[in-house]
Design brief:
The chain is α+β, with helices and mostly antiparallel strands and 111 residues long. It has two helices and seven strands; from the N terminus they run αββαβββββ.
C-alpha cells in the first residue's frame, strides 16, 4: 500500500459519521509523503517547531502551534509522541512515528 492510499483510505475515511477535514504523512525533514487535497501548505519552520516540541515537550505551549499559517492553542498531548492543537470548534493532532509525522485536522472552517 502506498502512503497516499493510506491517507485516502484510512486517515480520511468516515467513522460513525465523522471524518477528518485534512490529513498528511510528512517526513521529519518536512518532506510531504502523502496528503489529502485539503491539506494546508505547511512551512518548513512550522515542521521544525513541531519537531522541536517532540524533542523538548512544552516548547510550543507559550507561542502556540502554527500549521499552514494558522495558530492553534496547544492542549494535552503525550509528551514526545503526540501534539494536539485547538482552534475554535476544530483542531489538529500530530503523531510522531520513527520516520514521519501523521497529521490529522478536524476543522469546520477555513480562513
Amino acid at each position: 500500500m502506498s502512503w497516499q492510499a493510506y491517507v485516502d483510505d484510512h486517515l480520511m475515511c468516515e467513522i460513525e459519521g465523522n471524518h477528518l477535514s485534512a490529513a498528511a504523512i510528512i517526513g521529519h525533514d518536512g518532506s510531504i509523503w502523502a496528503q489529502s487535497p485539503t491539506f494546508p501548505q505547511v512551512k518548513p519552520e512550522e515542521i521544525t517547531a513541531v519537531m522541536n516540541d517532540f524533542n523538548e515537550p512544552g516548547s510550543l505551549a507559550p507561542t502556540g502551534l502554527y500549521l499552514g499559517g494558522t495558530k492553534y492553542m496547544v492542549i494535552q498531548g503525550e509528551a514526545g509522541a503526540v501534539i494536539r492543537g485547538k482552534k475554535g470548534p476544530g483542531g489538529v493532532t500530530i503523531k510522531k512515528t520513527a520516520l514521519s509525522l501523521i497529521i490529522g485536522f478536524l476543522i469546520y472552517f477555513w480562513k
